[in-house]
């Protein structure tokens, strides 16, 4: 038996099990052995049955002394199994396991059986209960050495394969397989122990210590493989045909001199970093992180002017049409006087062919646009720089589409979503990172307050004086309707209500379904201050910049994620006046309150990001699925940040010294880099 062998060749695995395994993507012995346990239970010694409730789940073992099925409320049923401790004296309290409306459970459990259960003990009346525990029936004695009297692995649930069957199979394979020839996936530098041993110990560890060591080995291997992939992508990107795209800087200086403010130190530092990249003959792949309002647009313009001065075209891509239009307006304002030619491309502008479609033409110096820049036949004759704003709204594939051209342009991607460090090392691991960690001076403070929807009257009483003082207001609410028609209708109804409430101040309604030119006119009137109140959906989430708008009211705030609320809040606090963000919520649950309170406490995007990451996990935050990286089987991006750092440093240094993995000690890594490249590229396209 060897590790790469297909499971089909093992005669003792019945055909239906082979098929069930295949559904899980498990076809070889290696697949089976890297189907890692989700947790372990200590079945060497069971604790006594609890007499109190606890928030920590416990693992208990007992004999079923009674079962019963009760009905309540018509068709609903509770199945109860009462467990007694094996060595218990008569006085010790039994444990009642309960399942609601799961009729199949009653077929699995019978009096006299031994059961291992895992769950949280709760006090219900006088009884100690466990609701919906995970459980396993202990069947015959001879198998006890596999399932009992040890630290026992618990696998991810699967259909058609019980814990016992799966555990039994893995146990037998490990009995019969010689793990010594299993190749280590780690370089000497990171190695701790042997891969074969780690695989044994992750399933059937002797001690909790050996389990932890095995896990560390395997997590490190997994992270290392991922970082090798990232490092190879990076190396590949750097080796592409490119050139310097950097002028002498006179045009940029001219622009900076016309600005009504001084650049922040952070802006100067970042512009210098970008300038170095533009001047180098290797392609730039840089991520610019800066909280909302930190002034990324100015940095982007500086970069664009450096490229334009050197005779190249620049593309500036934004995720929404509103934002593209805004960038267009801003750039036109600053760059027309410098004689720079601009054009704009968005899908919407293309559709309405009766409008003056494209200002400028393909020979423009700077093309601003949305995804349309990707998909239309926009011919760049001489593209030197691509700036992608609000990168988190685009997928990796979309980015690749603009950047994979030959010769390679320099690429600057910008994001206002603060990214936890581990994520920067993975999802954006192939990019160099610049950070704007300073806000421009003279910004008014933003005060954030959470209010119950029932307090709308008080809120209105607060809003009016703000409007009287000349400030402007955003009212944002989430759209919940699935159909476009209903959405538009809901938006319209909402808008009518607000018009009445804030009479006589002028209101306008903005939502995604409006025709593009109309959206633009509405935004323009709001920007000029003719409209005082903008009732809007989240189309204003990113980038919109109207400094006189100082109040934002967000309805049903509980429906938004923290990161998104922070983004929305970034629309205010952009001028000198003090700003107010009011989060209305009608859901008083403690979770909601705790979530929204984060925003009351901090206006620092990184803190919000960390809290969001605690509450929701990284997937939601960043669309890791779009990242084109393989899914993790064992590592945890949050818990294992340190290991990721070690894996990254090592992988980067290997590629630095040996970019083609030619050295004999590195050759063995080639296989998995190539393998993963293939797999992920097919994901992306
Ligand atoms: P973001 O980083 O969120 O994209 P913007 O680039 O839209 O932020 O900048 C927000 C506002 O701050 C704009 O009105 C911009 O003109 C202004 N701004 C940018 N840099 C500075 C600075 N150094 N000092 C003062 N205001 C600045
Ligand atoms: Mg911006």
Can you describe this structure?
The protein has 685 residues and is of the alpha/beta class. The protein is built from 24 helices and 22 strands. Helices cover 39% and strands 19% of the residues. It has a 7-stranded mixed β-sheet. The chain has a 7-stranded parallel β-sheet with strand order 12-13-11-14-15-10-16, sandwiched between helices. The chain has a 6-stranded parallel β-sheet with strand order 17-22-21-18-20-19, with helices on both faces. The longest helix is centred in the first third of the chain and has 31 residues. The radius of gyration is 30 Å and the shape is globular. It starts with 14 loop residues before the first helix and ends with a helix. Bound molecules: adenosine-5'-diphosphate (ADP) and magnesium ion.
Helix content: 25-40%
Which strands sit side by side, in order, in the main sheet? 6-7-4-3-2-5-8
Mean pLDDT: 85
Largest sheet: 7 strands, mixed
Low-confidence stretches: 351-360, 619-625, 680-685
Amino- and carboxy-terminal Cα gap? 37 Å
Bound molecules: adenosine-5'-diphosphate, magnesium ion
Beta content: 15-25%
Give Rg in angstroms: 30 Å
Shape: globular
Number of strands: 22
SS-derived structural category: alpha/beta
The helix count comes to 24
Task: State the main characteristics.
single chain; 685 residues; alpha/beta; 24 helices; 22 strands; 19% strand; binds adenosine-5'-diphosphate; binds magnesium ion
């Amino acid at each position: 038996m060897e590790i790469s062998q297909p499971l089909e060749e093992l005669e003792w695995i019945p055909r239906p099990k082979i098929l069930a395994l295949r559904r899980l993507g498990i076809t070889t012995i290696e697949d089976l052995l890297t189907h890692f346990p989700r947790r372990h239970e200590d079945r060497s010694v069971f604790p006594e049955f609890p007499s109190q409730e606890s928030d920590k789940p416990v693992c208990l073992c007992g004999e079923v002394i009674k079962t019963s099925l009760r009905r309540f409320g018509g068709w609903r049923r509770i199945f109860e199994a009462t467990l007694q401790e094996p060595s218990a004296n008569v006085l010790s309290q039994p444990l009642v396991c309960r399942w609601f409306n799961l009729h199949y459970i009653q077929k699995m459990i019978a009096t006299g059986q031994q059961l291992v259960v895992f769950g949280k003990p709760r006090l219900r009346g006088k009884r100690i209960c466990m609701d919906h525990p995970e459980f396993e029936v202990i069947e015959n004695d001879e198998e006890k050495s596999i399932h009992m009297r040890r630290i026992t692995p618990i696998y991810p649930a699967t259909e058609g394969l019980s814990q016992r069957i799966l555990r039994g199979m893995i146990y037998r394979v490990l009995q019969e397989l010689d793990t010594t020839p299993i190749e280590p996936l780690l370089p000497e530098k990171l190695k701790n122990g042997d891969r074969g041993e780690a695989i044994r110990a992750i399933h059937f560890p002797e001690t909790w210590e050996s389990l932890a060591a095995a896990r560390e080995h395997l997590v490190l291997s997994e992270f290392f493989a991922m970082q090798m992939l990232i490092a190879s992508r990076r190396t590949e990107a750097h080796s592409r045909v490119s050139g310097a795209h950097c002028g002498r800087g006179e045009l940029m200086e001219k622009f900076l001199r016309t600005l009504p403010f001084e650049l922040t130190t952070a802006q100067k530092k970042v512009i210098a970093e970008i300038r170095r990249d533009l001047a180098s003959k290797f392609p730039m792949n840089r991520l610019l992180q800066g909280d909302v309002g930190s002034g990324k647009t100015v940095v982007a313009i500086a970069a664009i002017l450096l490229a334009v001065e050197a005779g190249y075209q620049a593309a500036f891509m934004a995720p929404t049409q509103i934002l593209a239009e805004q960038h267009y307006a801003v750039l036109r304002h600053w760059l027309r006087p410098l004689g720079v030619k601009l054009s704009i491309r968005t899908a919407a502008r293309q559709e309405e062919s009766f409008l003056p479609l494209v200002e400028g033409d393909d020979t423009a110096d700077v093309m601003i646009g949305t995804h349309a820049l990707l998909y239309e036949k926009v011919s760049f004759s001489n593209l030197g720089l691509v700036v992608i704003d609000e990168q988190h709204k685009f997928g990796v594939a979309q980015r690749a589409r603009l950047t994979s051209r030959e010769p390679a342009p320099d690429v600057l991607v910008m994001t206002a979503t603060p990214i936890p460090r581990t994520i920067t090392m993975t999802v954006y691991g192939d990019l160099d990172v610049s950070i704007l960690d300073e806000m421009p001076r003279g910004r008014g403070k933003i005060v954030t307050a959470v209010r119950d929807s029932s307090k709308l009257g008080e809120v209105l009483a607060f809003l009016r004086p703000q409007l009287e003082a000349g400030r402007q207001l955003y009212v944002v609410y989430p759209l919940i309707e699935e159909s476009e028609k209903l959405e538009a209708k809901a938006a319209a109804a909402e808008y009518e209500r607000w018009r009445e409430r804030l009479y006589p101040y002028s209101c306008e309604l903005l939502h995604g379904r409006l025709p593009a030119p109309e959206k633009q006119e509405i935004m323009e009137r709001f920007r000029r201050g003719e409209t005082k109140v903008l009732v809007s959906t989240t189309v204003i989430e990113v980038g919109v910049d109207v400094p006189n708008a100082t109040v934002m009211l967000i309805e049903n705030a509980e429906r938004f994620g923290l990161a998104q609320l922070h983004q929305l809040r970034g629309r205010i606090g952009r001028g000198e006046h003090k700003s107010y963000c009011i989060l209305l919520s009608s859901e008083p649950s403690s979770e909601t309150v705790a979530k929204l309170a984060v925003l009351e406490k901090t206006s620092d995007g990184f803190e919000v990001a960390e809290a969001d990451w605690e509450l929701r996990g990284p997937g939601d935050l960043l669309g890791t699925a779009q990242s084109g990286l393989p899914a993790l089987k064992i590592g945890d991006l949050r818990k294992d940040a340190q290991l990721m750092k070690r894996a990254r440093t090592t992988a980067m240094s290997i590629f630095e010294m040996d970019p083609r993995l030619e050295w004999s000690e590195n050759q063995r890594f080639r296989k998995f880099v190539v393998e993963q490249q293939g797999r992920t590229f097919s994901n992306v396209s």
